[in-house]
Every structure is written in C-alpha cells, then in structure tokens.
Amino acid sequence: MSSSVGAQDVNLEKMRSDAMRGKWREVFEKCKQNRALDTAMMTGTGDTELHMAMSNGQEKLVAKRVATWGRKKGYPISNYPLF
Predict the structure, then answer these.
(1) Is residue 70 part of a domain?
(2) How many angstroms from the chain centroid is the CA of residue 1?
(3) Which of 4, 33, 43, 58 could form a disulfide with 47 if both were Cys (CB 3.0 to 4.6 A apart)?
(4) Is 42 exposed, middle or buried (0-12, 13-18, 19+ CB in 10 A)?
(5) pTM for the whole structure
(6) From CA 26, how far away is CA 78, in angstroms rounded?
(7) Which domain covers residue 52, as residue numbers?
(8) What is the rounded CA–CA span in Å between residue 2 and residue 61?
(9) Number of domains in the chain
C-alpha cells in the first residue's frame, strides 16, 4: 500500500470520527485540505460527508459547502436547488 493511500485512510477515519461526534466544520475543513475526500464513501452504503451532514440536519453547512465547491468549479449559485 502506498503512503498516500494510507494517509487518505487515516484522514477518512478521522472524518468519520468527527462526523459521529457532530464536528462538521472539522469534517468540511478536512475535505477542503484534500479534495479526494469530497467523494470518499464514509459509510457502508456509500454516503459521502455531504450525505451524512444532510442526514444529521446540517443543511446550512451543506449549502455553504456546496456553494463554495460550485464557485470554485465556476458554476453559478442559481443552479443549485438548495438556494
């Protein structure tokens, strides 16, 4: 196993732990630091950090995260149904 894969596994475990404790800002900060974690499956059913946050009532944080991601990708905010 390469060290980058091992480091990503450690980051994913930390994100899962933070999510279970309701530390959503830390989870999203970790994703900002490592874009590969944006689409990482955090649960056995394939949920990402955004799925888990929405399931836990974190709509405002998810909306902010999606808006930030969209702006960086060059998408206009009006294209998102969350707004």
Answers:
(1) no
(2) 24
(3) 43
(4) buried
(5) 0.71
(6) 27
(7) 3-58
(8) 33
(9) 1
